[in-house]
Amino acid sequence: MATAENRSETLPRNTAVVGLQWGDEGKGKIVDLLTARHDVVVRYNGGANAGHTVVVGDSKYALHLIPSGILYPDIECVIGNGVVVDPVKLIEEIDSIQSRGIDAQSRIHISDRSHLVLEHHKMLDGALEELLSKDAGDNSIGTTRRGIGPAYADKVLRSPAIRTGDLLLGEDVLLEKIRFSADIHARQLDAFGFSERPDPARIFEECLRSRDRLGENITDTTYLLNDAVKAEKRILFEGANACLLDVDHGTYPFVTSSNCSTLGIPTGTGLPPKAVEHVVGIMKAYSTRVGAGPFPTELSDAVGDKIRKSGNEYGTTTGRPRRCGWLDLVAVKYTSMLCGVDEIACMLLDVLWDFDEVRICTAYRLTDGTITDRFIPDAGRLEGVEPIYETLPGWTGPLDVEGAREDLPENARNYLSFIESFLEVPIRLVSVGPERTQTLVASV
Ligand code: GDP
Ligand code: IMO
Ligand code: MG
């Protein structure tokens, strides 16, 4: 019989897990489940802005930089070149996992070409947000203030960038790089009228501590991963953030600074595109968003509050309340197309229990009155569109997690069937609670 644990036995060798909405879809839970039949789990984008929750019995783990496969003992975890690494946060995370009896340090491989997020990146992230919030109408992005944007900006600028491999350079060279990078940021802070300044000496000391702790974990992960593919090891790609936050394809400029969709996998790992053989798209049964930006199906009413309460929709990284709304299939059909999704895991279906009716957005009415079933990946043009809904009857009754998807209440099954036929992609996993065991598998 198909179970959540053996689901990955039937998957091709290399699978990607990617969020199809604005993040927090439950990627951590599914990566953890699928890890059982893989050898390597790799993060290809983002940084400590991600917060992936894995619940195992009474234990809850919130992972930010370490791939969510770490809880399985023999799995190798790779932080690819596309990730921006906050070494202080990473060490904290390793220590926290090790204190819970899991050997993490020796199984983490960090790309020498990933870029570092240091004190000055976080400072500039916060300063830019404050500056924007003073605009009339508040134009801040609502970032996690984890230094993500400034670190990726430095990567593209090149001269102020510091890569993880630079920790292994001679100390004089490293100090010089830090001085230059911090100075560029200090000048920006000064120009913006902030009195706060990064301290190169302090950053340098922090980098030396990071080098001592992480030095042996830093390697050429491009060769490591290509060798793993050659040795027929099974690789699981863990997307961070989500497709609607993708810097090229999301609701720009209210996005993060990396390619979170599967399109970011080759550049973020050094593996060729054909290495990704199968894509599992992770979708909440409704929509949430944390931070600013357009959200056509947002519910600023008692229904939205009910979803937030029942889904415990508060950020894993920042604790901020998440904005909640009905499922937007215009958006998910778009991201499913972009990511080449082969199957969907529908998460948090339990949160939609006990509603008289549930709604699904299937088209938008634009401000000029025209109707479209195409997503608009541009914040300015997406703002103000009106969602057009299908209304389906709700469901109630016992939540039987021992059963299969076929045992769900009829109206819940109809809800899932509606989604599948609209997206033209099968839903193979249905999650009805945070734990590994609270997962139903379609017997297709
Ligand atoms: P991620 O960033 O995509 O990994 O998702 P997060 O961990 O940030 O947020 C998802 C939250 O939903 C976490 O608290 C999970 O433990 C929880 N969760 C995952 N699946 C389910 C589910 O099916 N039902 C409920 N009620 N909670 C779930
Ligand atoms: P996971 O992996 C939800 C959002 C932030 C903000 C925007 C830019 O847990 O799904 P950044 O700090 O990246 O510059 O912020 O992106 N954001 C996320 N929202 N889940 C995430 O990750 C997110 N990562 C970034 O809230 O709106
Ligand atoms: Mg999250």
Explain how this protein is built.
With 444 residues, this protein is of the alpha/beta class. The chain folds into two domains: 12-110 and 221-441, Adenylosuccinate Synthetase, subunit A, domain 1 (Adenylosuccinate Synthetase, Chain A, domain 1, 3-Layer(aba) Sandwich), CATH 3.40.440.10; 115-217, Adenylosuccinate Synthetase, subunit A, domain 2 (Orthogonal Bundle), CATH 1.10.300.10. Helices cover 30% and strands 19% of the residues. The chain has helices spanning 27-35, 87-98, 119-133, 148-157, 171-191, 200-214, 221-230, 265-269, 302-310, 329-339, 379-382, 410-423, and strands at 15-19, 40-43, 52-56, 59-63, 76-79, 84-85, 108-111, 115-116, 218-219, 235-238, 278-284, 287-289, 323-325, 327-328, 343-347, 357-365, 371-372, 386-393, 427-431, 439-441. Strands 9-7-5-2-10-1-11-15-19-20 form a ten-stranded mixed sheet, with helices on both faces. Strands 14, 16, 17 and 18 form a four-stranded mixed sheet that branches. The chain has a two-stranded antiparallel ribbon with strand order 3-4. The longest helix has 21 residues, at 171-191. The radius of gyration is 22 Å and the shape is globular. The model has no long low-confidence stretch (mean pLDDT 95). The structure holds guanosine-5'-diphosphate (GDP), 6-O-phosphoryl inosine monophosphate and magnesium ion.
